[in-house]
Design goal:
single chain, 461 residues, Alkaline Phosphatase, subunit A, 7-stranded mixed beta sheet, 13 helices, 13 strands
């Protein structure tokens, strides 16, 4: 017994079990379960009641009861009411700052939507050039800051190709003058997650060996037998219970999402039509999160102004009665007399539900996946969906769309409609709150209390 002690054996057996599963075990033991941030942007606003018309397919009702209506934009999330927060009475402050303080005509209209979403800032002219190339505040967007905390780069996706300068469409900014363009090619995203084909061959061989390997406990079977011969009945029962627990733990971990993150067939991510692109890109986003390639994703459904020319909406969105039109065209569904162009509004509804569908697909996917702590990935995530314009038909920047899903690891109190004030407050005030939820601190070690044009903090707790 002196040559092979019980302590030495158990220490060796534990090490051999832990090594293949170290990342998963370490997170569960240390409480470092990944928190994820996903920001999804839908340009052109949403269809909601306001001073110009009474159609309302955005507000969810006091207890989300309106989500049961099949015509509601967020109808696909009707089973996730307890996981949502809908914000009301918020406006895009950068528009008003641009018009009232900078004197920008129309505050750049739709073109300021995307850059403001995660920077809280506004586009400005570059010198004497009238093009809009940078944001006012010399700072990175919040997705970049959260990604730095995780040690991963954000993954920036777009459901349709960009048209025009990337600064008009970018949600993610490395600095005030350095936009991080989105990727819309599914195969490029696949390569970002799993690496080039030649590197994936080695990964595949390793995963094959992992699937074929016997239990790590089999590697110490001889030592176990020798030890058991030296033990009494009570100790043998204790050792048997120990090994049973180890075996069950091994099986549970082997079935975990992280360890089953095998490289899928690349061909399955080649869209047969452009209609498939939204589904495939959202599935790739889920795969990137599940495989811990990234913990921060931005997803843009369409380009600046809902599209300033370029790709026609009917190439990507099924069911449009005017498929050769651009997404932006449908957002202006009001007539000169403040009436409603019914066919155009119907197409805008279809487009809005298509955008919200990507949000719903991600929420459902996160809810179906289990994290190392036994909670769903949705519980440990914060997903923000919305637009930087309210009534696009009249370029109204009050009552803008914003809804959250997930609890950010238990920090966020969901299942409610949140009205920060009876008057309109800046949506930019959400951004310092999001940074704080993920533990971001500035150079002085203090929470960042101002992001872009924010002037207060809207709490989600």
């Amino acid at each position: 017994m002196s040559a092979f002690s019980r302590r030495r054996f158990l220490r060796g057996a534990t090490a051999s079990v832990a090594l293949p599963f170290l990342p998963s075990l370490t997170r569960a033991q240390d409480g470092d379960v990944p928190k994820r941030f996903i920001a999804i942007y839908a340009p052109g606003g949403v269809v909601q009641g306001g001073s110009f018309h009474t159609t309302d397919h955005w507000r969810a009702g006091a207890t989300f009861e309106r989500l049961d209506d099949p015509s509601h934009i967020l109808h696909e999330l009707r089973d996730f009411k307890a996981d949502l927060i809908q914000l009301q009475n918020i406006r895009r402050e950068s528009f008003y700052y641009g018009t009232q303080t900078l004197g920008l005509a129309g505050a750049i209209g739709h073109w300021g939507e995307h850059p403001n979403y995660l920077t809280g800032s506004s586009l400005k002219p570059s010198g004497s050039d009238t093009s809009w190339r940078e944001v006012l505040v010399d700072d990175a967007s919040i997705d970049q800051k959260i990604a730095r905390l995780t040690g991963h780069r954000p993954l920036n996706l777009g459901l349709a190709p960009r048209t025009g300068p990337s600064t008009l469409h970018s949600l993610s900014w490395l600095s005030s003058a350095d936009a991080d363009p989105w990727i819309s090619d599914p195969l490029e995203v696949f390569t970002r997650i799993f690496g080039p084909a030649e590197a994936r061959a080695d990964i595949a061989r390793f995963q094959h060996r992992l699937l074929l390997r016997r239990s790590v406990l089999d590697g110490v079977s001889d030592e176990r037998a020798r030890l058991e011969r030296t033990l009494g009945t009570a100790d043998r029962r204790h050792l048997d219970a120990y090994f049973t627990t180890l075996r069950e733990t091994e099986q549970r971990i082997a079935e975990s999402r992280e360890l089953s993150c095998l490289v899928p067939d690349e061909a399955s991510f080649v869209p047969a039509t452009l209609f498939d692109r939204a589904r495939i890109l959202t599935d790739l986003a889920l795969l990137a999160l599940e495989c811990d390639h990234t913990r921060v994703i931005t997803l843009t459904t369409w380009g600046a102004g809902g599209g300033t020319g370029g790709q026609v909406a009917g190439s990507y969105i099924e069911g449009l009665s005017e498929p050769i039109r651009d997404y932006h065209y449908f957002t202006h569904f009001a007539t000169a007399a403040d009436g409603i162009d019914a066919p155009r509004l119907a197409n805008f509804m279809t487009s809005s539900k298509w955008s919200a569908g990507a949000f719903a697909r991600l929420v459902r996917g996160l809810a179906d996946r289990t994290d190392a702590d036994g909670e769903s990935m949705l519980h440990n995530s914060l997903v923000m969906y919305g637009s930087g314009i309210g009534d696009a038909a009249h370029h109204q920047y009050q009552d803008i769309a914003r809804v959250f899903a997930g609890q950010a690891g238990g920090s966020v109190r969901t299942g409610r409609i949140l009205r920060p004030s009876e008057s309109q407050v800046p949506a930019e005030n959400l951004l310092p709150e999001i940074l704080d939820l993920f533990g971001y601190r500035d150079a002085s070690g203090a929470p960042q209390t101002v992001v872009g044009l924010s002037n207060d903090i809207i709490s989600l707790r």
